């Protein structure tokens, strides 16, 4: 069996996403040992690789449990580290090895079932925590979508850096961000033009890591399992309010829907009609939202307008 063919079971995937959520995506061999064969499967698949020749241990100084670099004793040459009073020998050096996540290999396995334009040469951003796989076409979807793979988005600092990156590199259409964070971590806040999809929600369980294109396409249409009272797709094509789904096809309608949903999600639901009309680049014939949404099932049911303001009625 080749490395790329190694099936990753649910336990191994949970461990992998937990490692991916850490700052450096690294783990001690000693920690992997606690997971029995689960950690070994990730190493066998090539998803975890030894990080250089450095080995580390826990400082034995009675102060904390911080990691310290293992070195060679100046006289005996034996591996160990300097503690508070004396050199501490380490007889289990193999357990002090550091293993690091191979983000590139992981990314290629995740998108193996998708026809991504950059599948063989993804572009790394933010020190490799984000990989850009270009554009892909999904079942039952006319327009292509952008595919990014990201880790650590539950970290507020990394999430902020990601949003800055997305602003500098806007997508021509909807961009799907496959998040490696564990499913029990909070989902990133709404970002216009982007859909955040947890890997565990769209994975092909026969493989354990590869995204299933059919499931991913269905996820874009139906939203995540836990949506709250309002969920909107990143491009505004789907709005779900209390479980009732509304679809939009016009570009200007989509822009208006994302603005209204984003305002509601941010806790300030009322927007000036003029701002939406301007940002949606409506022509002179559109002076009110009624001109944009008149005849759509959401008009006066979900989308409301009064005077110069408008909002989602939830």
Report on the architecture of this protein:
The protein has ten helices and 18 strands. Helix 1 packs across helix 3. The protein has a five-stranded mixed sheet. A four-stranded antiparallel sheet has the order 1-7-2-3. It folds into three domains: 3-101, no CATH class; 102-224, no CATH class; 227-314, Arc Repressor Mutant, subunit A (Orthogonal Bundle). A hairpin with an 8-residue loop joins strand 9 and strand 10 (145-150). The chain is elongated, with a radius of gyration of 24 Å. Helix content is 27%, strand content 25%. The protein is of the alpha+beta class and 314 residues long.
What is this entry, summarized?
By secondary structure, the protein is α+β, with helices and mostly antiparallel strands. Helices cover 27% and strands 25% of the residues. The protein has a five-stranded mixed beta sheet with strand order 8-9-10-11-12. A four-stranded antiparallel beta sheet has the order 1-7-2-3.
How many distinct beta strands? Answer: 18
Shape: elongated
Strand count, sense and barrel status of the largest sheet are: 5 strands, mixed
Structural class: alpha+beta
The number of helices is 10
- Spans of 5+ residues with little confidence (pLDDT < 50)? 55-68, 82-89
| Strand order in the sheet with the most strands | 8-9-10-11-12
Share of helix among residues?
A: 25-40%
Mean pLDDT: 85
Give the strand content: 15-25%
Order of helices and strands: HEHHEEEEEEHEEEHEEHHEEEHEHHEE
